[in-house]
Design brief:
two-stranded parallel sheet; Rossmann fold; 2 domains; elongated; single chain; disordered N terminus; alpha/beta; 39% helix; four-stranded parallel sheet
Length: 277
């Protein structure tokens, strides 16, 4: 149970909004302890406001959301490539190193592709990129992940692929991508396209109305200060990504606002988990 310690009409209104979100948002259920810890950081209505805004904008990979994203990816790849996948391979890949999402995505995509004519064979999937590149009958691949951030790791992977085989074409497909990574100009000759189920803009500086943006930015800074364990390099997410993104079954990227995954000095339980590097 989350208890209120707020006062003032604006605070009460935002707290009521907060409670409604907890009660109606599937991924928030069963996480009352972690949510209460975030709520405890708030000391005025602007803090409640920005926390509520982030919860409302949060895209979380879990359950039906993950299924919807996987189905979208299956339709996107099959529509673009056609119904003869003999020369195409799908490779689930963790751009965020050990996030643990690739195995879950592999199984989910196999189910999503099972209903698409010509794509119902497990042969269209590969877990070994090097072996796939060595097969000269394969002319194109879709590298798929749950999340693409700024695109720096995508750029490195594309360069590596081009160095090993420059005649193949590579599609970068994700459940969710930051707009920065989605719109990035990749100069590797193997790159063909990017595609994503959801493209995220910066959740504060690009999504909050301009007339209250400065207030919202200050409110998030206040929450980070109250949290007390966030280094400057992760403030507002890595490279200030401002990603309102979460995952329940694997590690979240450091692009996500750190108050949602960084352990504080007082609380060791976080809303989302980020694997230690």
């Amino acid at each position: 149970m989350i208890e209120s310690s707020v006062s003032g009409q604006a605070d009460i209104e935002e707290f009521s909004r907060f409670i409604k979100l907890v009660q109606t948002t599937d991924w928030m259920r069963g996480r009352h302890k972690q949510i209460a810890a975030l709520h405890a950081l708030c000391t005025d209505s602007s803090h409640f406001f920005i926390l509520n805004e982030m919860f409302e904008r949060m895209v979380v990979m879990a359950g039906s959301t993950f299924t919807e994203a996987a189905d979208w990816i299956a339709n996107d790849i099959s529509s673009y490539t056609g119904n003869d996948p003999k020369t195409h391979r799908i490779i689930p890949h963790d751009f965020d190193d050990k996030s643990g999402s690739s195995n879950a995505l592999f199984e989910k995509l196999r189910i999503s592709f099972s209903g698409i004519s010509g794509w119902d064979s497990a042969g269209v999937f590969s877990k070994n990129l090097r072996d796939t590149l060595s097969d000269k009958t394969i002319t194109s691949i879709s590298v798929v992940d749950d999340f693409v951030g700024t695109g720096s790791k995508v750029s490195k992977l594309l360069a590596w692929i081009a160095n090993n085989r420059d005649d193949i074409r590579v599609d970068i497909i994700s459940c969710v991508s930051l707009k920065t990574g989605f719109e990035r100009k990749y100069d590797a000759p193997v790159f063909r396209r990017t595609s994503a189920w959801k493209v995220l803009e910066k959740a504060i500086s690009e999504m909050i109305p301009s007339e209250i943006r400065d207030l919202a930015i200050q409110a998030m800074k206040d929450l980070e200060d109250a949290h007390g364990a966030i280094p400057e390099s992760f403030s507002f997410g890595f490279e200030q990504s401002e990603a309102a993104y979460g995952a329940l079954d694997w590690s979240v990227p450091n692009n996500t606002f750190p108050i949602f995954w960084k352990k504080s000095r007082l609380e060791q339980s976080t809303l989302f988990v980020r694997a230690r590097r």
